[in-house]
Design a protein that fits this description.
CATH class of the largest domain: Alpha Beta
Keywords: Hydrolase
Protein name: Allophanate hydrolase
EC number: 3.5.1.54
CATH topology of the largest domain: Amidase signature (AS) enzymes
GO molecular function, one term: allophanate hydrolase activity
CATH architecture of the largest domain: Alpha-Beta Complex
CATH superfamily of the largest domain: Amidase signature (AS) domain
Number of helices: 18
Shape: globular
Pfam family, one: AH_C
Radius of gyration: 27 Å
């Protein structure tokens, strides 16, 4: 019998007493050992003796005190686990760390149990899963295809049912390509949200630790537990409160970018366009509005990763070994890194200038969009095709993924269907930095479907909505305070019929006060604006008494943040509710 290892299901089994962590972990270890000769998913599968300290640490512990109590996970073998060799798929590079990577320490403290270290493309350089002296990793569904990489074994550990989740890394797509090829959710969070302390760098300035899960909900739970500022990691970043666990929920109607037809590339695959069109239709069914997006600056940025100086960053890790012992590094990796020594400072700065110019264009293109959808890969390639043309075919796998970390975006690879031969296929949702939980919310809705029950909470991102009823209306005296903060007008509508509107004493500028009442209310004309969450605080502190921000109910029943008036401020005010709005009142003054 195949166990459901999803986080909530496993927790319920432990709570009911139908399963114990020891029973589960030892059973999964046996399963992994049986699979390893064919799939080469583990470089080091922990022995029963090596597992015992982790299992013993749960003895006598309360299930409710450990959010990941007894949850089995796998670790890509460029991420340190104390006392176990880290190889980066290069035996000559191997070392035994005395301390685990920060992310591993966090997971162990939460009660999770490591099964072992997983196989990868050597030095995390590759997107296919075949570049390892420990064996190529075949696909979990069709063995004539690769698993995808570089986080090959990590994806297989979840896809083959030996771990609830696994850790990978992602510099150019290593946490997303294998997710697509193995029907998994691959979460590549904003750079720095998950600590990379204790991770062998590929490109230190770009690397991200990723997770593979069956569902977006699980990825959301893991991100919320581990997105913490880490003093061990100089590239660690604080997670804004708009991106915490409470941001995960049901997305409201949203606008999503879709690449122009001329920017899409399926490399001759006839099924890809149909599968992608179906994914777009599913997003529309969730309330999404598709907006055509010029992807050319994104794709130009992607080419910089291997055509530009960033290859020298990879060389900074493996270069010394290559120089001293060339045969220790696989020929295909040596070929990728061969041009790195010739990279000079002038080239590096010129590439950085070009990247910054491209990022300005890309950021501008994302304004007004909640996310963008692309295929995760253009087409799958067979093991035979990779063997014949390893660099070209690997490059094709990264067409939609290479730009993401260079441009500092968050991304989620989501399963979306199957090809005619049964091979999984997926799309990627990406967006601005620190919109991770929002992207996971859209991914969750996408996985569940339009008719499935939705989380009660409303998904949040890096934009805040604001209802205005007076001088901040479009074109009026104080509207500049919104536009100067990058706000955009979303809609003109009405409040619910539960309010009265007063022209307050004083001025200029002359302002209204909107008050919710039990009886005698009317619907008031309002506008809904959206501004960056980072600007909301400065806007709030500038609001003079007796006004403030609270919750305003709109005509369709929604509650949004908006202007409200303290009752004491109505002294000397004139009730103008019968006019239905501030613009009508101004017009009545002649």
């Amino acid at each position: 019998m195949t166990l459901n290892l999803q986080l909530d299901t496993l927790r319920s089994a432990y709570r009911e007493g139908s399963l114990t962590p020891r029973e589960l972990i030892l059973s999964l270890r046996d399963k992994a050992a049986a699979l390893n000769p064919d799939y080469h998913l583990f470089i080091h599968l922990l022995s029963v003796e090596e597992l015992e300290p982790y299992l013993a640490a749960l003895d006598g512990r309360d299930l409710d005190s450990l959010p990941l109590y007894g949850v089995p996970f796998a670790i890509k073998d460029n991420i340190d686990l104390a006392g176990i060799p880290t190889t980066a798929a290069c035996p000559a590079f191997a070392y035994v760390p005395q301390q685990s990577a920060t992310i591993v320490e966090q997971l162990l403290a939460l009660g999770a149990i490591p099964l072992g270290k997983t196989n990868l493309d050597q030095f995390a350089t590759g997107l296919n899963g075949t570049r390892s002296p420990y064996g190529a990793c075949p696909n979990s569904v069709l063995p004539e295809y690769p698993s995808g990489g570089s986080s090959a074994g990590s994806s297989l550990a979840v896809a083959l049912g030996v771990a609830s989740f696994s850790l990978g890394t992602d510099t150019a797509g290593s946490g997303r390509v294998p997710a697509a090829l193995n029907n998994l959710l691959g979460m590549k969070a904003t750079k720095g949200l998950i600590s990379t302390a204790g991770v062998v760098p590929a490109c230190r300035t770009l690397d991200c630790v990723t997770t593979f899960t069956a569902t977006a909900r699980e990825a959301s739970q893991l991100l919320a537990l581990t997105a913490q500022l880490d003093p061990r990691d100089a590239y660690s970043r604080s997670n804004p409160l708009w991106n915490d666990a409470s941001a995960f929920g049901t997305p409201r109607p949203f606008r999503f970018g879709v690449p122009r037809a001329r920017d899409l590339e399926f490399f001759g695959c006839t099924e890809g366009p149909l599968l992608f069109a179906d994914a777009i239709d599913r997003l529309k069914a969730l309330g999404g509005e598709a907006v055509e997006l010029d992807m050319s600056p994104f794709l130009e940025a992607a080419r910089l990763l291997y055509e530009g100086p960033w290859v020298a960053e990879r060389y900074s890790v493996a270069g010394e070994l290559m120089e001293q012992n060339p045969q220790a590094v696989l020929p295909v990796i040596r070929a990728v890194l061969a041009k790195a020594p010739a990279v000079n400072g002038v080239q590096t700065f010129r590439a950085q200038y070009r990247l910054q110019a491209l990022k300005a264009l890309c950021d501008k293109a994302l304004e007004g969009l909640e996310c963008v959808v692309t295929p995760t890969i253009g087409r799958p390639v067979t093991l035979a095709e990779l063997d014949a043309e390893p660099v070209l075919r690997n490059s094709e796998l990264g067409y939609y993924t290479n730009f993401m970390n260079l441009l500092d975006y968050a991304a989620v690879a989501v399963p979306s269907g199957f090809m005619g031969n049964g091979l999984p296929w997926g799309v990627t949702l990406f967006g601005r930095a620190f919109t991770d939980q929002y992207l996971l919310s859209v991914a969750d809705a996408f996985q569940r479907g339009a008719d499935a029950p939705s989380p009660a909470a409303v998904a949040r991102n890096d934009r805040a909505r604001l209802v205005v009823c007076g001088a901040h209306l479009d074109g009026l005296a104080l509207n500049w305070q919104l536009k100067r903060r990058g706000a955009t007008l979303l809609e003109t509508t009405f409040s619910s019929p539960d309010y009265q509107l007063y022209a307050l004493a004083g001025g200029p500028p002359f302002r209204p006060g909107m008050v919710r009442v039990k009886d005698g209310g009317v619907a008031i004309a309002v506008e809904v604006w959206e501004l960056p969450s980072s600007e909301l605080g400065s806007f709030l502190t500038g609001i003079p008494a007796p006004l403030g921000l609270g919750k305003v109910q709109l005509a369709d029943g929604r509650w949004e943040s908006g202007f409200i008036c303290e009752p004491y401020g109505l002294e000397g005010a004139v009730n103008i509710s019968h006019l239905g709005g501030w613009r009508a009142y101004l017009k009545s003054l002649g």
